[in-house]
Design brief:
Layout lengths: L2 E4 L6 H10 L2 E2 L3 E3 L17 E3 L3 E5 L12 E5 L8 E5 L2 E2 L6 E10 L4 E9 L5 E10 L6 E10 L4 E10 L21 E11 L3 E10 L5 E11 L11 H4 L10 H4 L3 E4 L2 E10 L5 E11 L17 H28 L2 H19 L1 E4 L2 H17 L25 H13 L1 H13 L1 H10 L30 H17 L2 H22 E4 L2 E4 L16 H23 L3 H8 L3 H12 L22 E2 L18 H5 L1 E2 L6 H7 L6 H12 L10 H10 L3 H12 L16 H15 L3 E3 L2 E4 L9 E8 L2 E8 L2 E8 L3 E5 L2 E5 L1
Parallel strand pairs: 23-24, 26-30
Antiparallel strand pairs: 1-9, 2-3, 3-4, 5-6, 7-8, 7-13, 9-10, 10-11, 11-12, 12-19, 13-18, 14-15, 15-16, 16-19, 17-18, 20-27, 21-22, 25-26, 27-28, 28-29, 30-31
Helix pairs in contact: 6-20, 7-8, 7-10, 7-20, 8-10, 8-11, 10-11, 10-12, 11-12, 11-13, 12-14, 16-18, 18-19, 18-20, 19-20
Length: 804
């Protein structure tokens, strides 16, 4: 059983905020913070939120100096509704973890079952004892569904138990003006908030709360319905007519009763349910929430451009859309409310059985680390979008850190996991980038390019959200990262259809951008004024990582077109893009002549042309109070030093190791290790992978442990804002690409494993082409097992072997 558990809930504010993140529920479409249903005391700080992946509003981002092309508007994820609220009253006394006596409490994340569980034994100030068990689930089967299963059992009394269940549309996003990683201002993102109560013959009374976003003009609708489940429950014991009369044959239900015990305010709805129970008799309140957004629901035309239609026409179109959105919300609510709740739990378990079968990673000899790895992989499947309308935010759906933006994190740290374990999810991530390709072309024009696509550094719907361009928009490598992920997907799957559908077009447009960005100087192709992954060194010439990725992408664009044409599939891509043979020749020439910085004296690849000219910052002198440096030093101060926020050239040596010999990689690793702060959560996993490649297994293990435990141990002290999804993907890569030595190359799958002395063995599973294999490494060697598909040849420690 994969389980993470806190055996005694701490009531300290910081711990509660941390657990809001660690015990959040998500399924890739919706995410719900792990707040207490009953809330906290008024003076406590909390990030109480429910989110939809890819659902956004616009917010102004004024620039101090209005230079051409600087971004002055951003997208931000929206806290859409609060349906977590359930207030419990026992014989007139309100349950609170901060009053009475908490005799026992725990929180559990059941990663095999896909639920979170809170269990409490509580004694009221007047001595009434109750057992409370609260299950929560965001369904992988019905993505808009969030379920709370609230069970109460009186332990020493007979009497009334009352629930007040809240459906609140008047919610706001969290903000903190002191932290650049979250929103710095409080804005009204939801407008036109309405709440209504309806009656359905199929499920009784239910509430709907609807709203629009203030600027992006998207719509959201949430529905809530309740059911009671209990043994020996009679009509007389249910004192709330709204639920009682629905089960009474032939009952005459008047209009007031149809609306149940719901109370309505502007944008809010709440239902009160009272039950009379005997000692040790249990009651379960099932609270079903369905949340639908206008990006995915509400008709075929899911976006409305203010420029394309008049305001009157848009208002009519929006009204029609909202009616359809409401209709679909009700239909889904009826569907789940009529299902046996146990069936929903079974479907959740079955989904996760398939997930764990496909991606199982096990470490024998270090159970806490094994648990941390399972936790990280589970968070990836909770976070990743399950359709082409969304991606993976830096904090998943666990919080509002980085405002729900998508970064290069997806392609370089997270998508590799899904490429090797879940082909459909990886395919959707490529399709998402294709849906925003036109925005990437517009972004390229904004940056001064005549042709091609420059993907935004941070975005939700496709437009750039980076207000500080030196460490944001200048990171051109994100376009190369996307191309790299597409190529690796192809090498793992041989899925030429996706390349024809969208992959090749992205490669072509990014290659056009590289040609326009670059310049020939003394026979070599240079890329100037860019920023690499290291955000402590900005706007440089010839960042090694960026140049290496451009070289890779330009060459692969030519190869991909050759592969398509060899299978009779290139003509449609050529028609869509207007690609010419002359362009292909230019792509190949630029790739062949790409300048890759190298320093003869040190024997390393300098991070950029000027990097070695700068002062060296001795990172051993940095105190914990000074970290991260970006919060304590002016950017210009950082830019003047040889000091790294994260892996940069070392990352290039991992993903494009064939571009340099092993001695150059070793010397570069040793050089950059001394000046890297690892202020970014994306860093230690990469150093672990390269250390493993270089035979520094102890060092690889040390870096890996720091990466794997980052969120569970809150080592960066900011997990309250949300999980670090890229680091979680990096944990997987550190095992599979690091200790497992896995590489996807043109000639097939390469495996070159090493075993840390702290482990007895480790194993992982992956899918390559149409076969699934398991890799098990222990003191006796490496065992490869074919789990599904046809026998497949792989390279094991340089020798070609057939896995059958």
């Amino acid at each position: 059983m994969r389980r993470y558990q806190v055996n005694e809930i701490s009531m300290e504010n910081q711990n509660l905020m941390l657990e809001e993140t660690l015990f959040h529920n998500a399924n890739g479409y919706i995410g719900v913070r792990g707040n207490f249903e009953e809330g906290y005391p008024a003076h406590y700080n909390s990030i109480r939120g429910q989110y939809i992946n890819g659902f956004y509003d616009f917010a102004k981002m004024p620039q101090a100096e209005k230079l051409y092309g600087l971004i002055e508007e951003k997208q931000t994820i929206v806290n859409v509704v609060d349906t977590q609220g359930i207030e419990l009253t026992i014989e007139g006394e309100t349950f609170s973890m901060f009053e009475g006596t908490v005799e026992r409490s725990s929180r559990t994340l059941e990663m095999d079952l896909g639920i979170t569980l809170r269990e409490v034994i509580w004694k009221s100030p007047k001595g009434k004892r109750v057992a409370i068990q609260i299950k929560r689930m965001t369904s992988f089967e019905v993505l808009p569904l969030f379920l709370i299963d609230y069970k109460v059992t009186p332990l020493n009394f007979d009497g009334e138990v009352s629930f007040r269940s809240i459906h609140n549309g008047n919610v706001k996003n969290y903000f903190n003006p002191e932290d650049p990683r979250v929103a710095g201002e409080s804005l009204e993102h939801l407008v036109d908030i309405s709440s209504e109560v309806f009656h359905s013959e199929k499920m009784g009374s239910f509430s709907l709360v609807a709203a629009h976003t203030a600027s992006s003009k998207l719509s959201v609708c949430s529905g809530v319905v309740h059911k009671l489940v209990g043994e020996n429950l009679t009509d007389k014991s249910i004192l709330s007519k709204s639920i009682q009369l629905e089960s009474v044959e032939g009952a005459q239900i008047d209009e007031d009763t149809r609306k149940g015990n719901w109370n309505l305010e502007d944008g809010n709805a709440s239902e009160e349910i009272t039950v009379s129970l005997k000692e040790n008799q249990s009651i379960r309140l099932l609270k079903y929430t369905i949340i639908c957004d206008s990006i995915r629901y509400g008709g075929e035309d899911k976006s409305f451009s203010q420029e394309a239609v008049t305001s009157n026409n848009q208002a009519l179109a929006t009204a029609d859309r909202d009616k359809l959105l409401q209709k679909e919300t009700i239909a889904l609510l009826e569907k789940v409310a009529q299902q046996d709740v146990e069936e929903l739990y079974i479907k959740q378990k079955e989904y996760l059985e398939e997930f764990w079968y496909s991606c199982q990673v096990e470490i024998v000899g270090d159970e806490p680390l094994n648990q941390a790895v399972s936790y990280n992989l589970y968070q990836l499947v909770q976070s990743v979008g399950k359709d082409p309308h969304s991606n993976i935010a830096a904090k998943g759906l666990s919080g509002e850190g980085y405002e729900g933006h998508y970064f290069w994190d997806t392609e370089m740290y997270i998508q590799p996991f899904f490429t090797l374990t879940s082909r459909e999810i990886s395919k959707n991530l490529i399709r998402y980038r294709y849906t925003i390709l036109e925005h990437a072309k517009e972004n390229a024009k904004l940056l001064g390019h005549k042709k091609g696509a420059a993907y935004p550094w941070r975005t939700i719907m496709g437009k750039e959200c980076s207000g500080y361009f030196p460490s944001g928009s200048a990171q051109y490598h994100i376009s190369g990262d996307i191309v790299y992920a597409i190529v690796k997907y192809y090498l793992a799957t041989r899925d030429i259809e996706v390349m024809e559908e969208c992959g090749a077009e992205i490669l072509i447009e990014v290659s056009r951008m590289w040609l326009d960005l670059g310049n020939y100087y003394r026979g070599q192709f240079h890329l100037n004024e860019v920023t690499g992954p290291d955000e402590y060194t900005c706007l440089v010439n010839n960042n090694y990582y960026t140049n290496a990725l451009a070289k890779f992408g330009l060459s692969w664009t030519v190869k991909m077109m050759g592969l398509l044409e060899s299978q009779g599939k290139g003509s449609e891509v050529i028609r869509k893009t207007g690609l010419t043979q002359e362009e292909l020749n230019q792509f190949q020439e630029a790739s062949d002549k790409m300048y890759l910085p190298y320093d003869e004296e040190t024997g390393i690849n300098p991070q950029d042309d000027s990097f070695l000219q700068k002062k060296v910052w001795d990172v051993s002198t940095i105190t914990p109070e000074e970290k991260p440096l970006l919060l304590h030093y002016h950017p210009m101060h950082l830019y003047r030093y040889q000091v790294l926020k994260q892996a940069d050239t070392v990352l290039a040596h991992f993903i494009l190791e064939e571009m340099q010999d092993i001695q150059t990689i070793r010397k570069s690793f040793e050089y950059y290790e001394k000046i890297t702060t690892h202020d970014s959560s994306l860093s230690t996993c990469i150093y672990s992978i390269v250390a493993a490649k270089l035979g520094m297994v102890d060092k690889a293990y040390q870096y890996f442990g720091e990466s794997a435990k980052l969120d569970l141990f809150n080592t960066h002290k900011n997990t309250k804002d949300g999980i670090h999804t890229a680091n979680m993907g990096g944990t997987y890569m550190a095992i599979v690409y690091g200790f497992g030595g896995v590489r996807l190359k043109e000639d097939g799958l390469h495996i070159n494993p090493v075993l840390p002395k702290e482990w007895q063995e480790f194993s992982f599973r992956l899918r390559i082409w149409n076969s699934k294999i398991q890799v098990r490494v222990n003191g006796e060697g490496c065992e490869l097992t074919l789990l599904e598909g046809e026998p497949i040849a792989v390279w094991l420690k340089g020798e070609k072997v057939l896995v059958k």
